[in-house]
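Ticket reopened. Same input as before:
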Amino acid sequence: MDILGDGFADALRLLVTGDEDAWSITALTLRISLTATVVAVCLGLPLGAAIALGRFPGRRVVLAMANTGLGLPPVVVGLFVTVLLWRSGPLGSLGLLYTPTAMIVAQAAIATPIVTALVVAALVQVDPDFLVQMRGLGAGRVRAFLALLDEARLPLLAAAMAGFGAVISEVGAAQMVGGNVAGETRVLTTAAVLATSRGQFALAIAFGLILLLIAFVVNLTLVLAQQRAPERDGVR
Amino acid sequence: MRRARSLLLAAALVLVPSGCGDDDEPNRKLILATTTSTQDSGLLDDLLPAFTRDTGWEVTTLAVGSGQAIELGRRGEADVLLVHSPAAEEEFVAEGATGRRLLVMHNDFLIVGPADDPAEIDALSPSEALTAIAEGEVPFVSRGDESGTHAKEKTIWAKAGITPEGSWYSSTGQGMGATLQVAAERNAYTVTDRATFLSQRDTVDLVELGAGGPELLNIYHVIEMTERAGNRVQTDGAAAFADWIVSATAQDLIGRFGVDAYGEALFTPDAGRDEAELAA
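Engineering reply: fixed in the latest deploy. New output:
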């Protein structure tokens, strides 16, 4: 129990004093995870919309692939990205391995199928007549589609949050493609692993608590957005 | 729609700052593949800033087992290695893709176990100690990760003429720190390097057992890679690191490392010495 207490005390001390570069590690973690999430949304939203609304051959196969991607093991993604980015690999000339960019690539690869699958789920649950009605009311294709996105905005937001949750808590791929380099690619999860292997359990718990705090703030934002939505609609 | 727009704006705000700050000069950065012991003990935290200050080279450290470090060197993925697995190193150097291999420092391996010493190995030589553990089928935890420490452990088993197997023998596949913790939780014996053990002495409930001796010597070499391992190897960076770590500045830092925290030095600097003399 001492260790847990020390961990709490350490987390507070780290956040107040900025020791062990806690702030820069936290900032880097946020930067990498948020960028990867934005990339995943930019890819997953159109992809998910195409699967949900489109009619094309192989649609079910693509959907099955996206759903498989929900359970994609990060360590497998990490291994693939590492091999691609190795100096001797096909993209080695870019010199990206062990940089934050490599971590963003790997994390985006992890999050994109998650976002895609959840976007599909979000869009198919809207009344199938919705688009027909919007078109009937005289909306153009683009306006009708945007109205559909607005209708499904909360599940879409949840899709983005799920992608973010998957990447910020992830350690296997982050460690492999980032290399856990101090001051450059060390994020909260890999810092916690290193502290653990050094026997610095209180420090590891402190990093874990900061991670939890971030996850909590993100989810709190989501809950608040969901709670406020009906009121806003009522006022309109 | 207002909400969608504010989401986009938030996304843009996050993305803009992330675009900057990545433009370090990539050609002044070298990759050092080394063992977990040099990172977990904190030695590299002392050495690398001084190296960067003295030479201008920045270092990306990959702390892996010696086996993986050598594999990264073999593939040209690392520029310079700091490893402690002499037999594997000699084999690797014989392949012809390396440059210089220089003696840097040593300390020793230890056999550690529960304080009540169930296999009664205290005062036994390393191979006698492992024999007693195997015959008593007392729990033993191995790293099993082809690291330098694992290689040393296998050498001692071989010397004792034992193939360790059975439910008493387990393999973590992890670094030294994690393996020490598993051993402590299971009241098991393990083979560890002194640096990692001292740095974790307060958090693991294990004590040093068995007699030491030349069998347990833990010798670190620096190995330069050349372009024969891959055309992107930074040979000048490798040379700068090898030259620096055997220099008087670095050797002095190595000799003093750990004195403040543990009351004893964790490594003995050996640059320029004859390896055959170390055992004496």
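The longest helix of chain A spans residues 201-235. Chain A has one domain: 27-198. Please confirm and we'll close it.
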